[in-house]
Amino acid sequence: MQIFTEALILVRTVEAHIVSETESDIRLFSYIKRLIWLPTKFLKMGINEKTKGASVWAFLSLVFMIFGAWLVDTLGLANTVAATWTLLLAMISPLFLVVFAMPSTYGDHGVSQQTVAFIVKHLGTRSFSSVEAVELLKKSVKPFEDRARSRVSTLKWLVGLLWACFTYTFLKGIETPIPNSSGLMSYVFMSFWLFMGVIVVYLCVWGYEASLDKLFRSIEFGCNDFCHLIELQYKSNANYSIDSVPRK
Hints:
The protein is mainly alpha-helical and about 250 residues long. Helix content is about 85%, strand content about 0%. The chain has 6 helices and no strands. The chain has helices at about 5-20, 25-75, 80-100, 115-125, 130-175, 180-245. α1 (about 5-20) runs antiparallel to α4. It is flat, with a radius of gyration of 27 Å. The two termini are about 45 Å apart.
């Protein structure tokens, strides 16, 4: 089979796996599912992956603020400059810890060992038997990633454009006198919904990029693991051949 076809099959298979879905044998149903259902789960997965950091930050912030308040109360620092600095430090410290977290806590892009094992098993069923063939497969997957990254770059420009439109509309509203309370309420609601629209679009682009990271890093880790297994098997067979030679 052509290496392009193998690359396409690998990408499609891993896409379905990381969103906990399976390919259907019915082509029409599989196409509709991939067109409508899978993108939703794919995007949701990325948003969840990205918000993990925010969840950790929120949890640490709560813990540090409680500890800071307890420390201020215990040491009797209420209504003093020291209390202000203590609470300020309690607010900043969690953000510092999350931003400068250890690489091992986020460097895997959310890739699980189960996904890597799944890819290794898939490559085994596709009869890949050499490191060179797997490396060629990785090179064939690269254009898929490049194309997806190009789309993300375009979407980021769109988010920037939407933010610029919101900023322009918001500032124009401030500069222009609003004659009555009804006009003021309309301006506030319009600004609010424009701002929420920008946030939603930003979260979608942010989540989509995280999903792409997980997809293509899963393929990379899986291919690397499979290459490692091939090399181990080759060394094992070589040692067996040497040991099987009769010694005089």
